[in-house]
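Quick question, first post here. What does this chain look like in 3D?
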Amino acid sequence: MEQKNQITEGVIWKQLLFFFFPILIGTFFQQIYNTADSIIVGRFVGKEALAAVSGSVNQIVNLIVEVFVGLTSGASVIIAQFYGAKDRKNLDITLHTSYAFALTTGLVTGLIGVIISSPVLRLMKTPEELMADSAIYLHIYFLGIIFNITYNMGASVLRASGDSRRPLYVLIISCVLNIFLDILLVVFFGLGVRGVAIATVTCQGISAALVTAFLIKGNELFRLNLRRIRFHLVSFQAITRIGVPAALEAAMYTVANIVIQVFVNELGTDTVAAWGTLGKIDAVFWMVVNSFSIAITTFVGQNWGAGKVKRMRKSVLVCLAMSYGAAFLVSGSLYGFAEQLYSLFTTDRTVITIGLNMLRFLMPSYFLYVAIGILSGALRGAGKVLVPMILTCGGVCFIRIVWMFGVLPRYPGIKTIMISYPISWGITAILFVIYYLNKFPKVGNIQGETE
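> Answer (accepted):
Ran it through. Tokens below.
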């Protein structure tokens, strides 16, 4: 007897939560990779090492990860739609094309990354005392980037089919091992930043191997066969049609943050360390919103494939309500425990004081992003990616970059940098709501509908 698909038939709020929590917990453990690195080097090596792994390096790594998460979202959406439609043939083709894409881009990106790491760090005006450690970390990271990309592709395929639990199990195993290796290599072997980089790459390799093994085992609708991994033109075009705009959107987000990081770098090591640590702390907020965004993408994609328009729209409203509730709870908690959280990363009072001012200034405005995250995820699940990409790149990225070069020189300081965030979020959220209300499918046959 064929198993009932709960995403297309179950109670929406329950299934969203069942799907959301494994993603959230998994994202939490994934974040612990870098957070553990920062805590251990900050405590046992020094604030320069903390700044090295939290400053320019963090922005570059985020750029690479976010771009490839965007690219894998193309495969995720297509697989979700075919899974909802129970189309075994196209599922099989998409799966094997997705893996070919991940392996190829992993090799190319690794090679390019090793070559350009040091020049990019200098372009970002990375403080000279941080250059050596930053370059070492990036060189090791790029040598193992194929593992990161393969894991993200495999995990996105599993989630698209409604399986958010096994990627969670993989991340828990890898995270625990990462912390163990960090302590071993940094505290006992004294390898410093090199040690945390080796630990991270090793654990990403294990993650990639595990999700690949799960896909080889497969389920009732698809199964990965390593000998059949190759590009299929039509499938590749479908994946890139959705994945490339999503990747460009993610890239522009991170490019804007890199531009901001350049200006932060000019404010000194203490500010760099405080800003980078803020990125580790507020990651809890982004984990919650982005987990809901991933969940709604899969929900909309599978119901799109099943032709259930009303269920698609209802799931978006339910997801928005839950996301806002969670966002207020998380941001309030981070605000209230800000000093204790910063003290986990460093004992330097100057860094802590600067960081507390940053967090308490920015945190009250974070709720503005919720509509952007959830509506963009829903639109992506329906295959609508071009206009949301333009809205994000213009409303968030372009405004921030213009702000840095137009406003900051006249009113220099960290507060001028930070105010660009709520301004850009607010404008972009309004644009997303308008577009969603006008363009999200309302009635009729949604199969084959285009942008």
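Confidence is low (pLDDT under 50) at residues 443-451.
The two ends are 37 Å apart (CA to CA).
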